[in-house]
Amino acid sequence: MIASLRTVSGGRIDRNKPVRFTFDGRTYQGFAGDTLASALLANGVKLFGRSYKYHRPRGVISVGPEEPNALVGVSRGPGRFTPNLRATQVEIVDGLDAKSQNRWPSLDFDLGAVNSLFAPLFSAGFYYKTFMGPNLFGKNWAWTHLFEPVVRNAAGLGDAPSDPDPDAYAQFYEHCDVLVVGGGPAGVAAALAAGASGARVIFCDEQAEFGGTLLSETQATIDGASAPAWLARQFAALAAMPNVRLMPRTQAFGYYAQNFLGLCEVVSEAERLANPDAPRERQWQVRAKEVVLACGAIERPLVFPDNDRPGVMLAEAARVYLNRYGVKVGRRVVVATAHDSAYRAALDLEAAGVEIARIVDLRAAADGEWPRAARKLGIEVTTGARIAGVRGRLCVKAAAVASAQGVEWIGCDALLVSGGWTPSVHLYSQSRGKVVWDAEREIFVPGVSVQRERSAGACKGVFALDRVLRDGAVAGHEAAARAGFSAQGPVANFDVAGAPESSGGLLGDATPSRGAKGKAFVDFQNDVCASDIRLAVREGMRSIEHVKRYTTTGMATDQGKLSNMNALAIAANALNAPLPKVGLTTFRQPYTPVTFGAFAGASRGDLFDPVRRTPIHEWAEDQGAEFEDVGLWKRAWYFSREGENMHAAVARECRQVRESVGLFDASTLGKIEVVGPDAAAFMEKLYTNPWAKLEPGRCRYGLMLNEAGFIIDDGVIARMAPDRFHVTTTTGGAPRVLHHMEDYLQTEFPEMKVWLTSTTEQWAVIAVQGPRARDLIAPFVEGVDLSREALPHMSVREGRICDVETRLMRVSFTGELGFEINVPPDSARAVWETLWAEGRKYHVVAYGTEAMHVLRAEKGYIIVGQDTDGTMTPADAGLEWAVGKAKKDFVGKRSLSRPDIVAPNRKQLVGLLTDDPILMPLEGEQIVAVANPTKGSHAIGHVTSAYASPTLKRSIALAVVENGRARMGEKVFVAAEGRTMPVTICDTVFWDKKGARLDA
Amino acid sequence: MLLIDCPYCGAARPEIEFRHGGEAHVARPRDPSALDDAAWAEFLYFRANPKGLAAERWRHVAGCGRFFNAIRDTVSDRFVCTYPAGEPRPDVESASVGASA
Q1: DSSP alpha helices (H): ranges in A227-330?
Q2: In this model, does residue A117 exceed pLDDT 70?
Q3: Mean local confidence (pLDDT), A421-442
Q4: CB < 8 Å to A285, chain B
């Protein structure tokens, strides 16, 4: 049993509130205020996970969102499982259940670690090289059958949750004058300055507690007070400002156009306990007038052999674990650094009783204030030295220090490293600003602002505490002023002591030239080594964007927060080019992973999409209808009776329509009222058909093309009056058609006096179809002569039915005598039920969309979007008759004479009859000319519709076939996996070719 | 999400209320039948697709429903100005100077 590494006192944890949690099934205790990482470290846990590719044992390396190794899955009960969380960011609560990832069967003994033995296979570009062959049994055979299943199983991070998430996620839109991102010293000073001006300020930080580096500051004083005391005072002031909203646990993950930022707030356990209805997370979409970015900086690891062993940790992280969480990360540590700041960490650890075995400084000399203080205390410092290797697989046991004197092994249980600091320019870069290379300090800093933002503090390369505070205050002042709020007094000055400037830094590979052995990792999460980057360069990658994709460096969930700069330096070195020439990869949103829940918000389940229901919907439900989704509409698909399957139900519905009469809810048809003195002229332009001479009271099938000559919609159009058309569109096409009409009306023919109104939901439509249709409706119709002569096929009258106003059309989409009764939706159900009751006399049937499809296919009526695909002209679809030949112009006309459109051998709509009437082709299946086509031969068409026809007692199909209409009677073959089906090309009309039934 | 000024509504509204409509100032020929195939193809399919300032059509589809034109920088997404359909393309250079970042 390892004794606790918890300090006796100190830190910001609440030692009076113990918290129990489990990790990999074992129970541990921590305190309120701990993260999973700090609590486990306090319990002596060093091993947190296994690496992605080689399954190497890994520990925690950092203390923040940049953590690449310590990824865990956290479970809070059924459905409440989140994989890939950084242990450094997970607040522990009682009962929290965390699991390590990417190991099997256990973290200590992981079979995947054999991958290390095959390391040569996994070099840079291994995705592209290893999995290319052999193509033993066809193209990509090896990848599909051998590699992919193994790779999918072995690689990857946590498991995706399998249960629905029972938690709620909320979304908010918010506006503010000044958004301050980052709660460290620069952010605090900025928020104070902006808040004092009266501006509406949102101040967010990803951590539970504001303060950033000040929370672990032990030496510095500000205005005479210790850093924590000063911080408490400032937060009291901020909390008293009603115009300032403090948002802890809130990560600004994305900076988008026009100062639009995405924030994700993790709701605290305390709030969720107090309010069980509180969401798990809230996504805030904030439009800020001005933004202050105070994102801080991230410490870089050093690249040396076996630098990934558990116990190797960033120096400042060790300092934060000690000062903020009261955790000693080791008992005897070696510090390897190229920056003064690691000395400060060493001094704090030394003061807490940790033995500093050695400080290894990679620089030739270290003369800053912190190094001087360390030496003064008697800590042994070796300059001009490097780390040649690390002993200990599951935890560091010793480090090899290589200097001019040779290699010396020093025993330790933690190795603290610092390669210097990288400003966090992510959000600035997302705002589309271009970073600038500071050659002297070897950092990228923000350049010119593209949006209304400014960076402050360490994220812009300002590191000394006094200057950071001042910089933040200036930024806050300026932001408020730009947002229109005048400053209250001069910019604050801060009197800081005990925080001397520190400097240093090193980029790239720090492996000593001699005596080193082992992998030197650059990207821990993707297992990319320095040698991989050099290999990528040798193999021809020149830009960092290529190196990134070839090696996968910087591509994991941490997005290269620790690795990018080292990778870039190694690539630049290998290319012998200046670093800025090699380029920096683009920073993209999100800064840290955001849950799907936060993006989905309430848009799930019933609220995923709006649902449109017709006035007949509930009646159909009561009758046991199955529904299908058509756009947002729910449409009755078929009505099964007891014991009937879909096939039987559809067959019965079709037969009854042909034999007697059927009712069909056609309310979803799109409807547009086209009104005005120029309505007919407008229709002439928008549809292929002639309209000028269509008499009021008559209907015509209308065909709509786009300007390229392809069919985009169709529908029956009724002329109600000389200046009024009742246009119907396909169910899914109504918004598109209206948009298309508006486009032409507003921008091409603005001189036309026409008004367009969507009337889809103003008219419910009851289709009454079948030989007894007239008999059925006649008793209820007033003011309309329904006789064959007075109301021929394709005519319309206004009158009344069941004492309700109606536009009564005699039209048919079944090939039978038919009427479409348009009535106001409020009355539709009553009319429907009246007709239904009357229909008993005639053996009426309610039929759904499936039967409607079969009936229309038997007549060869097309469905735009099913039998056409956006490349079909009227001639291709056999609809030349619908094109007004004498018309001078309509949308799409000129394209109908384009060379490709009049070329021979275009695909044309035809009918297909299978030789075996029982066999049915499937929609989308390819058509070939011979029974056994040779591999790679070309398809001459495809099936667009296929149904079992109860009327013809056999299968029927529609298809498009090259030059199809000239091939009537020709035998072709429908090809599918493992079979070809002989079919004969025929006319598209399978039933009542002369149309006698229509005219009944 | 972009904010777009509808010149008819006189208000900046979020992008989700709008629908993009392709390049502006591509007028449909008055007599398409007078065009040869090449000229018609040019009208149908060829667009400038500039890197930088572009004049494009937008429709305030979830607002007033009207089409208008906008000058937008395709690199930065910045809207320089919007103006009613039918008006000529504004002098972009001077408009650009007047617009704030």
Answers
A1: 227-239, 269-274, 315-325
A2: no
A3: 96
A4: 1
Q: What is the CATH number of the domain that holds B40?
A: 3.30.2270.10
Selecting from B32, B76, B86 the residue whose C-beta is nearest the C-beta of A894 gives B32
For the stretch A746-790, pLDDT in tens is 999 999 999 999 999 999 999 999 999 999 999 999 999 999 999
Structure tokens at A829: 């159900």
For the range B82-85, what are the long-range contacts, defined as Cβ-Cβ under 8 Å and sequence gap of 24 or more? B82/B4, B82/B5, B82/B6, B82/B7, B82/B58, B83/B7, B84/B7, B84/B8, B85/A746, B85/A747, B85/A750, B85/B57
Strand order in the sheet with A699-705: A699-705, A711-721, A724-729, A670-675, A755-758
Distances (CA, A) of A861 to A643, A679, A691, A812, A877: 31, 27, 21, 10, 10
CB contact under 8 A, A260 and B1: yes
pLDDT digits (tens, 9 = 90+) for A363-413: 999 999 999 999 999 999 999 999 999 999 999 999 999 999 899 999 999
How far is C-alpha A972 from the geometric centre of its chain's CA atoms? 44
Q: How many structural domains are present in chain B?
A: 1
Count of pairs with CB atoms under 8 A, one residue in A, one in B: 58
Specify the 3-state DSSP secondary structure of A569: helix
Residue A650 amino acid letter: V
Q: Does domain A169-296+423-497 have CATH number 3.40.50.620?
A: no
Chosen CATH of A332-417 out of 3.50.50.60, 3.30.565.10, 1.10.600.10, 3.40.50.300: 3.50.50.60
What does the pLDDT read at residue A250?
A: 98
For A88, the token pair is 């450094």
Asked if residues B70 and B93 have their Cβ atoms less than 8 Å apart, the reply is no
CATH topology match: A169-296+423-497 vs A332-417: yes
Q: Per CATH, the architecture of A1-126+138-166 is what?
A: Roll (3.10)
- Say whether pLDDT at A843 is over 50: yes
Residue B97 pLDDT: 41
Lowest mean pLDDT among A286-300, A420-434, A545-559, A867-881: A545-559
Spatial separation of the C-alpha atoms in residues A311 and A45, rounded to whole Å: 10
Taking only the tens place, the pLDDT of each residue in B55-100 is 999 999 999 999 999 999 998 888 999 999 999 999 876 544 434 3
Tell me the chain A residues in contact with residue B21 when contact means C-beta distances shorter than 8 Å.
Answer: 743
HEC-encoded secondary structure of A571-626: HHHHHCCCHHHHCCCCCCCCCCCCCHHHHHCCCCHHHCCCCECCCCHHHHHHCCEE
Residue A154 has pLDDT above 60, yes or no: no
Interface mutation vs chain A, best among B44, B61, B68, B76, most A CBs within 10 Å: B44
Q: Return the pLDDT at B95.
A: 47
Q: Which pLDDT belongs to residue A139?
A: 61
